[in-house]
Amino acid sequence: MPKVKKTKKVTKSKTTKKASKEPKAKQTPSKASKKAGKILPVSALDIYDEFATARLDDNIVTISKIMAEKGVENVILVDDANEPLGSVSALDVVKGIASETALSAKVEEIMSNVPIVEEGESISEVFEQMDEFDSEFVAVTKKGKLVGCCTLKDLMIDDWTNKDRSYDLVINEKDGTFDLVVVWQ
After folding, report:
1. Model pLDDT for residues 31-88, shown as the tens digit of each residue
2. How far apart are CA 143 and CA 126, in angstroms?
3. Rounded to whole angstroms, how far apart are CA atoms 43 and 77?
4. All domains of the chain, ordered by start, with CATH?
5. CA neighbor of 150 nearest in space, from 161, 160, 136
6. Which of 160, 174, 126 lies closest to 29, judged by CA?
7. Under a CB-based contact definition with an 8 Å cutoff, are residues 9 and 131 in contact?
């Protein structure tokens, strides 16, 4: 079995991280995955979390209230066109307060980059974005507009133990990448 290797791919992120100049390698399933099932896009899982949004000019107190009301740990910052710009986590809020940032300070001062995937992206792309941004969630967009949020916890939910199907990570023998394959029984 070939070793899994990390490859630098062009990200679809609209954050300050610079994308690689190399073209994105076409991801083709191995023979085993073609026989076993189909490559599963994130949209097929229907696992978007409840998510909250805010604007760059909102302050830390407003973000804290949104988190408490919605019961979420992350707020995705969007522009007027509902395109994701960044995120603020509960940890970002705590760090902002600990560094004596004023509670009235705009969230722009404490925000983080947000990993973004398009709705049709593969689960492996979701994992790659989470890994690249050291994040436990990704913003999911459709034509650049925010439609949902997918967390690491979502990818590990009990619903995946559905008796009608099973899941497997398959290594692509050509380039060493991997993808999640669903096997319908």
Report:
1. 333 434 445 566 555 555 568 999 999 999 999 999 999 988 899 999 999 999 999 9
2. 17
3. 21
4. 42-156 (3.10.580.10)
5. 136
6. 174
7. no
Tokens 């590990």 found at: 156
Give the model's pLDDT for residue 20.
37
Which region among 11-20, 105-114, 145-154, 155-164 has the lowest average model confidence (pLDDT)? 11-20
Distance from C-alpha of 54 to C-alpha of 89, rounded to nearest angstrom: 12
Distance, CA of 120 to CA of 41 (rounded, Å): 5
* Assigned token pair, 123: 């689960």
pLDDT digits (tens, 9 = 90+) for 109-144: 899 999 999 888 877 788 889 889 988 889 989 899
The DSSP bridge partners found for residue 88 are 75
List the one residue out of 32, 51, 28 whose CA is nearest residue 122. 28
What would the two tokens of residue 97 be? 């307060």
